[in-house]
Amino acid sequence: MTTMRHWVGLAGLLCLALFAPAVAQESGPTQKDAQAATREEVEALRRAIEQLRAQVEILETRLAAQSATVPVPAQEPIPPPLAPPPAPPARSQGLLNPAISAVFQSIGMTSLQRRKESDGFDLSEAEVAFQSVVDPYSKFDLFLTFPAGATPDVEEGFVSTLALPGSLQVKGGRFKSAFGKWNTLHTHAFFTVDRPDALVSFLGDESLTNDGLSMSVLIPNPRDLYIDSITEVGTARPGPAFNGDRRNLTWLEHLNFFINTSPDSTFEIGLSASAGRTGATDLVRRQIDAAVTAGVLLPGAVIPDDQLSSRLYGVDLTYKWKPLQQNVYRSFVWQTEVLGSRRDVQTLASVLPPDLAPDRITSYGGYTYIEWQTAKRWRLGGRYDLSELPDDDRARTWATAGVVRFQPSEFQELRFEIKTTRRNNEAAFRFDNDRSDTQVFFEWIPVIGAHGAHKY
Amino acid sequence: MMTLRSIRLACRCALVAPVLGGALLAAPLLALLAADDAAAAGPARIRVVASLPNLGSIATAVGGDRIELTTIAIGTQDAHFVDPKPSYMVKLRGADLLLINGLDLEIGWIPPITQGARNSKILQGGPGYVDCSIGVRVIEIPSNLSRAEGDIHPYGNPHYLADPLSAEVVAGTIAEALKRVDPASAQIYEEGRKRFVMHLHEALFGRDLVDLVGGAKLSREAAAGTLDAFLDGTALGGAPLRSRLGGWLGRMQSVKGQPVITYHKDCSYFANRFGIRVIDYVEPKPGIQPSAKHLEELITRIKGGEARVILTRPYVEHRSTEALAERTGATVVTLPLEVGGAPEATDFFKLFDVVIDRVVAALAGPAPTGGR
C-alpha cells in the first residue's frame, strides 16, 4: 500500500513538471485574446450560416409563392400581402335578388268609456318590402301593404335616381309626400301606436301620398349644412286635403334644414307647403242629402264644386340627443309639427231656391312628442295633440297619450299606449257625440328579412 | 369723302382696338398667373371619407399629405349603430373615395347616407367605393343564417382589424384605390404602403426579428398560422428564433393561452393572433342584452377558475360587467377597438400599444380576491 502511494505521488510530480510551463504560457494575456477572437469568429460564422439558411428558406417560400400566385417583382422588399382570401362567402347568391322583408303589426285596442267596433285584437297591417338597386343609376323600393279586411295595395313604389349631377335626386312612382316628418313614416316606424290627431284630420287615416314625381336638391351653402329642397308634383291619393282627381295636380315644396348642435345632438327644421284641389265638405254633402231625403230638394238640383282650392302648410321641429358613445342605451327626442289648412268651401245658403255660397276655412292643428330612452330596450314617450278640422275650424279635439316601447332586439318591438281624447260639441258631432274617450292600445311588431334602414 | 358713318366706325375701332388688344395681351398673362397659382397650390388633394377611425388612420399612413381625410364614426362609438345623419351625406357629396369596413358592419348606416349623398363615385360599384374587407382572411362565417343566433353577420366576423396583421391587407387595398383615382401620385401611395407595412411588421414582431428574417416572411408565416412552428423550429446561434420575438407578439408571450371572457364577439381576431382563449361572452348572443340567468352562469364559470379577466368596450353598458366583477372579483378591462377609443390611442400603432398594455397588465396581474 505504501509502495502504491509512492508511485502515485511520483506520477503527479512528473505531470506537474511536464505541463506546468504550458499552463503558465496559456494563461498569458496574448493567448487568451487570440482564443477569444477565434471563438467570436466561429460564432459569427455560425450566425452567418444561420442567417443564410433563414434567407434561403425565405427565398424558397417567396419562390413558391410567386409560382403559386401573381408574380411579385424581384426588387419588391415588402410584397403585397399574400394571405389568400378565404373561400368567398355566398355573396353572389343574393346579389341579384332584392332585399326582401316583412313587417307585421298586430294591434289590440279597447275603449274604456264605450265599446266601439274597432275594439279588439286585429292584424292591423302586414307590409312586404322589396328594395334593390336597379342599375348604376337608380334604385327601386316597393312596399306592399296587406291591411286587415281590405284589399292589398301598393303603399309605396318608386324609383329613385342615384347618379344625377348637381346634387339632384329624382323620384318617380307612388310615395309618401315629404310633408313634415311623421307623414313619411311607415306605421311600424311610428313613435306611438296611433297617428297624431292633427295628421289624421289634415292628411288622412293613411299618409298624404302622391302618384307623381319628386325632385330633391341639396342646396350648397358656405357652412356645409344639410339643406334639402324637395319639390313634388303629382296626383294625391284621396284624403281630407285633396280630392285625388287625376285632372288636378298637387304641388308640394318642402325645405329641410339639419344642424348638428353638438356631437351628441341635432336639430331639424322643416317647412312644407302643398296646394291642390278638393271637393265638397262632409257637412254640405250631409245637408244636401238630408234635403233630398226630406223631399225639399230634387236630386241633382245642387251639385257642389269639386275644383275648390286647398292649401296645406306645415312647420316641423325635431331635436334629438344621442350621446355618441352610448347611443344604443340613451336618447331623447322632441318632435313637434304644426299644420295649417286654408281651403275654399261651399255652404248651403238656401234650399229654396237651391243655392251654394262660397266661403273659406282656415284651420290649424299639431302635436308635440317627447321620448326618453331609459335603457337599451326601453323607451317612454308622451304626446299632446290639438286639432281642428280642415272643413270646420270650430270643431276642436285635444288628446294626450303615453307610450311604453320595449324592443327585445333590433327586429321586434312591443308598444303599450293609453290615450285620452276630449272634443268640443262640433267635434263630438262627428264622433257619435262622444265628448271624451280613453283608449288603450297594444301593438306587437316583428320584422323579418333584410329591411332597409330608416331615415334619421 | 368721309361719311358720318365711316367716322363713327373709325371712332369705334379706335376705342375698341386697345381694349381688344389689351384683352388679348392680358389673357395669356392671366392664364400664366393662374397656372402659377395652381402650381403653388399643388395638385388637388384626394378627398377620402372613412367610415371608421382605424381605416382613416391607415389611409393617412398610406396617403399622407396627398389626401384630405374625413372620418364619420368616432373611436368610442359602436360601429354597428352609427346614426345615418343627413350631415354625413354632405361629407360624402364631394368625396373621391369612401372606405368602409364591409362584411355588413355598417349595413344600418352606410347605404342610406351613400344613397342620399348624390355622388355616384362612392356608390357600391363606383370607382370610389372601397370595401376594405376584400382580401382579408375572414373568420366565423356562420353556417346557419338565422336571427335566432342574434345579430349575426352573414359574411363573417367583421372586426378583422382587431388583428393588426389584417391592416397589411387593408393598406394594400387603400393604396390600390388611391392609385386608381390619382395615378399621378401612385409612387407616393406605394411608398406610403411600404412604410406602413414595415412599421407594422416591426411593431408586431419586433425590429430584431424583422431585421433577421424579414417582415414579409414573418407576415406570411403568421397569416398561415405557422408562425409558432417557424419560430420554434428555426434556431439561430443555438437558440430558437422565438427568443428574438419582440413587439406586440413578444409582449403577449407571457400571457399566451390564458382564458378571457369578452363582452361582444369582437375579440376573436385578436385572440387568434395573440393566442389568448375566449371562453365565453357577456352577451348570450351577438347584440342580445345579457339576461340574469346568463350572468349567473358566467359567475359560476369565473368562480370555478375558468377565467379571471373580462374584456369589454367603451361603448357597451357597464352594469353587467361591473356586477360580474363585484360578484367574482374578476378584472374588467375596457379595450378600445378603434383609434380614438382611448385618449392615448391616437393612431393605429398607439391603439395596439394601449390594447397590449392593458391586456398584459390584466392577465399578468394578481389573481382576483374572490368578490362576494
Please explain how this structure is put together.
The complex is a heterodimer of chains A (456) and B (372). Chain A is an alpha+beta fold. Chain A is 21% helix and 47% strand. Chain A contains six helices and 16 strands. The longest helix of chain A is centred in the first third of the chain and has 40 residues. About 10% of the residues of chain A have low confidence. Chain B has 372 residues and is α/β, with parallel strands linked by helices. In chain B, strand 9, helix 13 and strand 10 form a beta-alpha-beta unit. In chain B, helix 5 runs antiparallel to helix 6 and helix 6 crosses helix 8. Chain B is globular. Classes of the chains: A alpha+beta (456), B alpha/beta (372). At the A-B interface, helix 2 and strand 8 of A face helix 3, helix 4, helix 5, helix 6 and helix 8 of B.
Task: Output the keywords.
heterodimer, A: 456 residues, alpha+beta, 6 helices, 47% strand, B: alpha/beta, 4-stranded parallel sheet
Summarize the SSE layout with pairings.
The complex is a heterodimer of chains A (about 450) and B (about 375).
Chain A: H1 2-26, H2 29-68, H3 91-95, E1 99-111, E2 120-135, E3 138-147, E4 153-161, E5 168-176, H4 197-203, E6 209-218, E7 226-236, E8 250-262, E9 265-278, H5 282-293, E10 308-321, E11 331-350, E12 355-373, E13 378-389, E14 392-409, E15 412-423, H6 425-430, E16 436-449
Antiparallel strand pairs in A: 1-2, 1-16, 2-3, 3-4, 4-5, 5-6, 6-7, 7-8, 8-9, 9-10, 10-11, 11-12, 12-13, 13-14, 14-15, 15-16
Chain B: H1 4-41, E1 46-50, H2 53-63, E2 67-71, H3 86-93, E3 97-100, H4 110-116, E4 129-131, H5 166-181, H6 186-205, H7 207-213, H8 215-224, H9 227-233, E5 235-236, E6 239-240, H10 247-252, E7 259-262, H11 268-274, E8 277-281, H12 292-303, E9 309-312, H13 319-328, E10 331-334, H14 348-364
Parallel strand pairs in B: 1-2, 1-3, 3-4, 7-8, 7-9, 9-10
Antiparallel strand pairs in B: 5-6
